[in-house]
Design a protein that fits this description.
By secondary structure, the chain is mainly alpha-helical. About 70% of the residues lie in helices and about 5% in strands. It has a two-stranded antiparallel sheet with strand order 1-2. The protein is elongated. The chain starts with a helix and ends with a helix.
Length: about 90
């Protein structure tokens, strides 16, 4: 149970600390979702937020997964990578 709590805290902390630099980078490079009639938000939103969530999740998984579970971890990491890249391609297009 402690590993689960530590995993959550690690993932949350990494995501929380990674988002501000990603927003600054998105501002400087223009990686924003532009407003139009199909959007529900009122201002431009960064497209790079998923990177922070991905980094937090992967780091937390690799750091707190017990050694006996590493043979199953490869499938979870592969699934998360596929979802991440599909989302990144969707955001860029």
């Amino acid at each position: 149970m402690n590993d689960l709590i530590l995993s959550f805290i690690t993932s949350f902390s990494i995501t929380f600390l990674t988002i501000p630099p990603l927003i600054a980078f998105a501002e400087s490079q223009g990686y924003y979702d532009q407003l139009d009639e199909r959007r529900s938000h009122n201002k431009n939103i960064s497209r790079l937020g998923g990177i922070a969530v991905f980094v937090g999740l992967i780091f937390s998984l690799l750091m707190w997964t017990p050694g006996t579970q590493f043979e199953n971890l490869q499938y979870i990491v592969l699934s998360v990578l596929v979802i991440f890249f599909v989302g990144a391609i969707d955001d860029m297009i």
